[in-house]
């Protein structure tokens, strides 16, 4: 969905803010909190996510796709360990 809106900036106490229409918040799955990315002269808003939200689904997908193989051993051979001191 692509939508362009002109939203007025309003006075809120000693600050300023914008009112985002309910339909826009629902379409973007935004509820109580958002994250804001400020870059150059733009602000990008996204739904706030909890830490590690979605990790379980991603881990299951990685396992299903065999993308969760171990890339390096759990242990280091003694001779390799000694070589690190050189």
Q: How would you describe this structure to a colleague?
A:
- It contains three helices and four strands.
- It has 86 residues and is of the alpha+beta class.
- The protein has a two-stranded antiparallel sheet. Strands 3-4 form a two-stranded antiparallel sheet.
- A hairpin with a 2-residue loop joins strand 3 and strand 4 (42-47).
Spatial extent as radius of gyration: 23 Å
| Uncertain residue ranges | none
Dominant shape: elongated
Order of secondary-structure elements: EEHEEHH
Total domain modules: 1
Lateral arrangement of strands in the main beta sheet: 1-2
**Extended strand count:** 4
Number of helices: 3
Derived structural class: alpha+beta
Strand content: 15-25%
**How would you describe the oligomerization state of the chains in this entry?**
single chain
Largest sheet: 2 strands, antiparallel
Q: What's the end-to-end separation, in Å?
A: 58 Å
The averaged pLDDT comes out at: 88
How helix-rich are the residues, as a percent range? 25-40%
Layout of helices and strands:
Elements: E1 9-12, E2 15-18, H1 22-27, E3 34-39, E4 42-47, H2 55-64, H3 78-84
Antiparallel strand pairs: 1-2, 3-4
């Amino acid at each position: 969905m692509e939508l362009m809106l002109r939203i007025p900036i309003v006075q809120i106490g000693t600050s300023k803010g914008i009112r985002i229409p309910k339909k826009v918040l629902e379409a973007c799955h935004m509820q109580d909190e958002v994250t804001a990315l400020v870059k150059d002269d733009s602000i990008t808003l996204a739904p706030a996510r909890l830490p590690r939200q979605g990790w379980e689904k991603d881990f299951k997908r990685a396992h299903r796709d065999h993308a969760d193989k171990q890339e390096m051993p759990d242990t280091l051979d003694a001779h390799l360990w000694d070589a690190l001191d050189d």
